[in-house]
Amino acid sequence: MNCKLWETPDMHELAMTTQIVENVLAEAKRHEAKKVAEVHLTIGKLTFLGAEQIRFSYDILTKDTIMKDSKLIITEQDGVIECQSCGYKGAVPVEDDPAYHVPIPTLRCPKCGESAKIVEGKECTITSIRILKQQECNDDCKRCC
């Protein structure tokens, strides 16, 4: 499964995690799963989603579902920009501004100074799910069947 969930920076971690859980449960149901064992996410750094907040929300939202006690594996993806003016494609430059307590990415090309387009790092994607079906579940997970 490779389900892209989001590409805009205006959704809170709880709302995003709710969407993740709903999508995983729908996919698990489609495959007649008895238990979800693992969920793999790739989260772009330019989403500004906090991995710890995602984990906290995930644990709460999955506690009364077949996803309870599943392992959430999060991989972070660096941001990449591309400049239409000079062709630069690479890391997003950041500015350290003491007014903001974190480095702020700039969308200016580090080579020519022109505006650049984000090409990677603004997505949150479910990259894979590991489910258990009845026969596997009886052997591997006595508490769910």
SSE topology string? EHEHEEEEEEEH
User: pLDDT below 50 for ≥5 consecutive residues: which ranges?
Assistant: none
Second-tier CATH architecture of the largest domain: 2-Layer Sandwich
What structural class should be given to the helix and strand makeup? alpha+beta
The CATH class assignment of the largest domain is Alpha Beta
Please summarize the sheet with the most strands: 4 strands, mixed
User: In which range does the helix fraction lie?
Assistant: 25-40%
DSSP strand tally? 9
How far the N terminus sits from the C terminus, by CA atoms, comes to 25 Å
Multimeric status of the protein = single chain
> How many distinct folded domains?
2
* β-sheet strand percentage: 25-35%
**Overall outline:** elongated
